[in-house]
Design brief:
This protein is α+β, with helices and mostly antiparallel strands. Helices cover 49% and strands 20% of the residues. The chain is elongated and about 105 Å long. The N and C termini lie far apart (77 Å).
Amino acid sequence: MSYTYEKISGNKAKLTFVVPAEQFDKALQSAYLKNRGKIMVPGFRKGKAPRKVIETMYGESVFYDDALEAIFPDVYGEAVDAEKLEVVDRPELKSVDEIGEGKDLKFTCEVFVRPDVTLGDYKGLTVEVEKQTVTDADIDARIDADRQKAARTIDVEDRPVADGDTVNLDYAGTVDGVAFQGGTATKQTLVIGSHQFIPGFEEQMVGMNIGEEKDLNVKFPEEYHAEDLAGKDAVFHVKVNSISKVEMPELDDDFAADVSDFNTFDEYKASIVKELEEKAAKNNDIAVENALVEKAVENAKMDIPHAMIHEQLDYMMREMQMRMAYQGLRMEDYLKYTGQTMDQIRGAYHGEAEHRVAVELVLEAIRKAEGIEPTEEDVEKQTAEQAERLGKDVEEFKKSLTDEQRKYISDTAAIQKVVDMMKADCTVEEKKPEEATEEKTEDAE
């Protein structure tokens, strides 16, 4: 077998094959032996008709397709390997120029390959990034989260219901003196001020004592979900069974010792500030990396085959299904709830899939252009980070890796080196928050 290879575009290759006559004749004979049992020929038992008789009856080309199909994978695979082609789709047979017994088989196919990337500027870039800063509000919110966890619920027996209390109550609702479905319950829990019940209900419970019963006069909203109740006046007879409240701890040294490894509140707060500043710095670093990659992609040119985008879409759909499975939801149910089809979801994610492919191609092209390869230390660092993200012991994690997973980690380490190289000589300009910009514009007006 011989072939010629031609790159006909940035993402497509053409292969023209010449298969010796004797090789094709063997394939024809194999095709005959494989199919003769399926062909009926008058005067012959099934499967016993000579090949020439079948070819005379059905035409000499009766076994051509099967013979070509048998030959194609081997000759095509050999050419792909020899040319080191990174094919991304199935080959398409474009023409059969010569075929027949005793003749060399000549045919041409085309196949989409990993596209060429024409890189633009990717070094010395200038990017704008909106940097995160740690504010007093951020620090207070973080401390408040710990305070909420350390809070305790206590029973209230010496006063009536107040805003913010949790009340255990019984209630029975009527409209025009008639009870309605869903309007009666016992031992229900309600946080006063949470607005879980219809307007006016919770407000009228303020001031009630344990054991007290009272009629609450309310009006259902005009757009209430139950049409038979929408806009109607109702009376709820309620009884308070118990009252409790959340008691928040004081922000002192005892609180710090309870929620952290520090003995004083000042030490605890300093650790919170450090934690938030480290997180902000990391997020800012990621923002710079993302901006640099976006600009490098914007500056590059490539023609991405549809097959690569569809493959990425398949991967994204599997990711989506896995996330849903963790939440106990099936894709079939999600489609039913949202009224969407799988084609509509794939269409919505098409742009993101194309962008993901473009990012991968550009970073790989830069890696190749710069000859970047990860060191053993780079791979070890990336492996440790992967293990930490998964909450696993590094050594145990390393033992569990397959060859394919090790290659993925190595490639990830190489791509990180590409990004680090881009960061090394970039210029970062601070982008002002959009809200601040809009406020200034409004002030000017």
